[in-house]
Design brief:
Strands 1, 2, 3, 9, 10, 11, 12, 18 and 19 form a nine-stranded mixed β-sheet that branches. A hairpin with a 2-residue loop joins strand 11 and strand 12. This protein is α+β, with helices and mostly antiparallel strands. The protein folds into two domains: about 190 residues, FAD/NAD(P)-binding domain (3-Layer(bba) Sandwich), CATH 3.50.50.60; about 170 residues, D-Amino Acid Oxidase, subunit A, domain 2 (D-Amino Acid Oxidase, Chain A, domain 2, 2-Layer Sandwich). Helix 1 packs parallel to helix 8 and helix 2 crosses helix 8. It contains ten helices and 19 strands.
Length: about 425
């Protein structure tokens, strides 16, 4: 098998721009022989490399990243570490086993992250006070009722919220109703991924700015990078949608491009115009609705566009146009803060499947792949990384069985029909979004 992956976008990094820059690890410039190579240093790759290092304390684990830490989806997501996924359409008794399995995966990832953060004293604005799921329009209000019914039937701890309660807690009149799920955490995603990278076990060797140009598969496989060749006994691909966009699974996933804006730091007077909560995160109960956060450092972020852009980030002109949408959504929610300017504008790409599942597979005897999280990669990606390390080592773990039991991603037609289908799937995401955008 031969695959080639390169040509990466270089654009503003989103949340990374808000914090002190990090000195990246060196690029790999020498040829090496390795038992284990993990490709991709986002949440999945970092988790996988850490677990492999625990399982093989006397082996070097090579972790290579095409860009710098935090430049890809790990530094561009909105920082939600979910414990319980929201399934559109309400509770279905026949799906209980699937609900339970996905929650176990989420909670395994959350438990692992919390332990690593505490043990390594990672400063990442971690706040485990729960996540708001809110509705601004009729369609999402109906979804709110269904979600509450789901949470009640699953006996998941939550608080129902009226319009007045939302105003008191968050300082906005825009939402009609909602629910706060008590499990789940918020993080500054760039701080988290920096901390995870800088606290890896000593037997993990991290190399940044080291893109994979080609993989030649065999009993011992060859990975070619711009300045080195790795001979690898085992390869774990943890690159979200990117390798499968050209490789063996290319007909199962598309890259959907999202965009967001982040304000300057609010003044104390501006901050006091908001509600009683010092920081919070809102997920819309419409799948195409806005994601809104008040951060620990008193900024407001808003993410509310998603489109098919051929797996690429948005160019400056596209970004400027999308920010007009961000601006209107922000002003709708916080009219008294409409004078507050945006300081940061960015886009990111998430891996999406037609049936909103993930991919966890052995592609050959010594090639494994984990990725495609449909926008929920912090906890799920962390859990997939843990499970993939155990799976590749032949360990019989419950988490491995849960990940292997995930429904297979549906087949998608080849280009140019793929482009039309991806455009249509993404467009459907916003059907009936109304005031939730």
């Amino acid at each position: 098998m031969n695959q080639t992956y390169h040509n990466f976008d270089q654009e503003t990094k989103g949340w990374v721009d808000l914090i002190q820059p990090r000195v990246p690890s060196t690029k790999l410039t020498v040829d090496v022989n390795a038992k284990w190579v993990v490709v991709g240093a986002g949440y999945t790759g970092l988790s996988c490399a850490r677990r492999l290092a625990e399982l093989h304390p006397n082996e070097k684990i090579f972790l290579i990243e095409a860009r710098e830490i935090g430049q890809s989806a790990s530094g561009r997501n909105s920082g939600y570490a979910v414990a319980h996924s929201h399934f559109s359409g309400g509770y279905q008794k026949t799906q209980l086993e699937n609900y339970q399995r996905i929650d176990r995966i989420n909670q395994s990832g959350l438990k692992s992250l919390k332990s690593i953060i505490e043990n390594n004293q990672i400063e990442c604005d971690y706040k485990d006070s729960g996540i708001y799921h809110l509705a601004a329009d009729k369609n999402s209000s109906e979804e709110s009722d269904q979600f509450v019914d789901y949470l009640q039937k699953r006996q998941i701890e939550h608080i129902e919220l009226s319009k007045d309660q939302i105003k008191i807690e968050l300082g906005t009149n825009w939402y009609q109703k909602g629910v706060k799920v008590k499990d789940g955490a918020l993080v500054q995603p760039a701080k988290l991924v920096f901390g995870l990278a800088d606290s890896l076990p000593s037997n993990v060797e991290l190399y940044e700015n080291t893109p994979v140009l080609e993989i030649d598969m065999g009993r011992v496989s060859t990975i070619k990078t711009p300045s080195s060749i790795l001979k690898a006994e085992n390869i774990i691909m943890a690159c979200n949608y990117e390798p499968i966009a050209k490789g063996k699974l290319k007909q199962r996933v598309v890259g959907v491009t999202l965009s967001g804006s982040i304000t300057r730091v609010l003044s104390q007077d501006e901050f006091e115009m908001l509600g009683s909560e010092s920081s919070w995160g809102v997920l819309s109960l419409h799948s195409g609705g806005a994601t809104v956060r008040l951060t620990e450092d008193k900024r407001i972020s808003i993410r509310n566009t998603a489109e098919y852009n051929n797996h690429r980030l948005l160019n400056p002109k596209q970004l400027k146009n999308r920010q007009e949408i961000h601006r209107q959504a922000f002003n709708n929610r916080f009219p008294e803060l409409s004078h507050v300017n945006f300081e940061h504008l960015y886009s990111g790409v998430e891996g999406v499947t037609a049936n909103k599942t993930n991919i966890f597979k052995r592609l050959s005897d010594n090639l494994f792949y984990a990725g495609c999280y449909n926008g929920s990669g912090i906890t799920k990606g962390t859990a997939f990384g843990l499970a993939m390390a155990d799976y590749a080592c032949g360990n019989d773990e419950d988490l491995v069985h849960d990940c292997l039991s995930i429904a297979e991603a549906k087949w998608l037609p080849p280009k140019p029909i793929l482009d039309l289908g991806a455009w249509y799937i993404t467009k459907q995401r916003f059907k009936g979004v109304g005031k939730d955008r």
